Amino acid sequence: GxxxxxxxxxxxxxxxxxxxxxxxxxxxxxxxxxxxxxxxEGPVLLIALYKAGELTSNGRLTAQFGITRKDSFLNISASIxxxxxxxxxxxxxxxxxxxxxxxKLTFGQGTILTVHP
Amino acid sequence: xxxxxxxxxxxxxxxxQNVTLSCEQNLNxxxxxxxxxxxxxxLRLIYYSQIVNDFQKGDIAxxxxxxxxxxxxxxxxxxxxQKNPTAFYLCASSMGGLYTDTQYFGPGxxxxxx
Lengths: 117, 114
Prior knowledge:
The structure holds two protein chains of two kinds. Chain A contains no helices and 13 strands. Helix content of chain A is 0%, strand content 57%. Chain A is mostly beta strands. By secondary structure, chain B is an all-beta fold. Chain B has no helices and eleven strands. The mean pLDDT of chain B is 91. The chains are: A mainly beta, B mainly beta.
């Protein structure tokens, strides 16, 4: 089955630093999603990417859908303490079956981000 | 407010007991999903439903059951057959559109088996 490798597994940074994390896949996706999860809570969608090469920003966050459709990265600029949490990438390959369509999400293992004030 | 609710937030169960986790959404989404999360791991799909009265097994369905009698509700039962049920359970929903199908998550239920 499809596998996602997300790196790094954890990061310890100082407030104000920029952060970069990425996901690579053994096969292609046609959607990449980036989520953030706070401890004990559900993941919250940060950015959704739908086209190869697409570069999308959401405030201090920027994410790109790789040209090969097998990778994506997320950058956080000028980190602040509330950026602390676990960041997950998820790839989706939409498939049509019998007139309906469902794309299973495959998740990376997560990147644990710690920001020191 | 539109969103996904899960209850209870924390659940304790004795070994050998079945337990049902609730998931409700008022987003008018057609599709709903159940995931399991273990420490240090990504989310794994248990069951999903694209439409009322229909559902399919995900990657780790053994020991779990679901029903989808209403569009808004997708309860998950963790049965005594599930060998390692202690985990964080997440419900999600999506519109089920043709080109985009972004999933949105509820706050989760932490199940602990004593």
